[in-house]
Amino acid sequence: MSTRDIYIPQSLIDTLKFHRRRKEFILATVLVYSIIDGWSIRTKADTNGKKWRQINRNHFDGCAGKRNTVSKAIEWLELNNFIEIKKRISKKGEVINDNKKGKYSNRYRTKGKPKKDRTTFQVNEDAYHEANAVTETGTDWASIETRNNLALLTLTDQLIKEKNNRTNRAIWTIENNAGTVRRGRHVDRLYSEWCFANEEVRRLFLFDGEPFESFDLGSAQPTIVGKLADDKELMTACMNDQLYPAIAELLGYDPIEERKKAKQKFYRYCYGPILKDWKKQPEAYSVQDYISKTFPKTHYYAVGQKNPDYRRFARHMQNLEAEIFIDGIFAELVQLGIPALTCHDGIYCPISHASQVEQICRKHLTLFFGNHFVLNPSCHQSLVDYVCIS
């Protein structure tokens, strides 16, 4: 029987053996740990800078034959400081798990363990399959077509450098067409395992037997903001790739090596509330101040849109993105019978269709932005923003 490697702290195994736990409990515990450690979706950082993974309780059911075994495994991992579950104070003054009202889920994170403590633990393929086989597909046309197109992905024999539970799980879910494919609960974005995978994982796959090509809108969210605010100066800065380097320079980042950090800071400004005190979030406040002085038209528009609820503005931005890429570009590709996958502001297709897909992308983007946009080919980057509101 084939086996699969999962990656866990050696101290976890040592502690389990020290406590003389049964083999069934050990297997359930390491599978639960590997799911939390390998979960793709992260919520934005809390006030303490901790990033949490919100996971529905049903995703752990395949880790053991009995539900109470899974509950005991989670309890054991938390008690022994291998995982942490986000807490809050109830109205009665009790410390309880911070699960959302009406949601059967908690927010988890693995506790910091040095990489040298990591070890390989082998489980049989059937056990791994049972623990990761939860599959959810939305009933809308875009989710169904995406699920069908994910079935066209085939794993190549390329090797991957970084081996960890996250990449391991991402490869498995795409290869087995498992996991989530659905529109967001609060926005029209479409989420799939292809979105959650990173660049290195995506490159391991062929699309309909061919290498894939990708196209994405350069500086997508600021370009959309500029269009909504009718701020040609911001749109021009995005076209010339000047915005993120300018923010990087403002914050003392390397404009090339730390471009992603600069992008995240802009997203905090774009998706977050209007800041009134620079002391609490000095970098975010600096970005807000830069936008207000450099692109006053955009800032004035953003302030008006964020009142009274800044989340409404963030969702509006993501819905416009979905309107262009899913209900526009992807819908036309489906009508033409061209296999494609979306990733928020990006489109992936077999390379033989690249020229036609590029023309269709340009047509839809021109209708919305005129000539003030940049379409980037072959970026092959993970386009999921950790601050997205699903």
Task: Please summarize what this structure is.
This protein is of the alpha+beta class and about 400 residues long.
Written description of the protein model:
The protein is built from 16 helices and 16 strands. The protein has 390 residues and is α+β, with helices and mostly antiparallel strands. The protein has two domains: 3-119, Arc Repressor Mutant, subunit A (Orthogonal Bundle), CATH 1.10.10; 134-390, no CATH class. The model is unreliable at 379-390 (pLDDT under 50).
Helix-strand layout with pairing:
Layout: E1 3-9, H1 10-18, H2 23-38, E2 53-56, H3 67-79, E3 83-85, E4 87-89, E5 95-97, E6 105-110, E7 118-124, H4 125-132, E8 135-137, H5 141-150, E9 153-155, H6 165-175, E10 179-183, E11 190-192, H7 193-196, H8 199-202, E12 205-207, E13 212-217, H9 220-228, H10 232-239, H11 243-251, H12 259-271, H13 282-294, H14 296-306, H15 310-336, E14 341-342, E15 346-350, H16 354-369, E16 375-377
Parallel strand pairs: 8-10
Antiparallel strand pairs: 1-7, 2-6, 3-6, 4-5, 9-12, 10-11, 13-15, 13-16, 14-15
Judging from the principal axes of the Cα atoms, what is the shape? globular
The Rg value, from CA coordinates, equals 22 Å
Strand content: 15-25%
Give the number of domains. 2
Count of helical segments? 16
Can you list the strand order of the major beta sheet?
14-15-13-16
The secondary-structure class comes to alpha+beta
Compute the number of strand runs: 16
Mean pLDDT figure: 89
What is the percent of helical residues? 40-55%
What is the distance, rounded to the nearest whole angstrom, between the alpha carbons of the first and last residues? Answer: 39 Å
The poorly predicted ranges are 379-390
Question: Main beta sheet: strand number and arrangement?
Answer: 4 strands, antiparallel
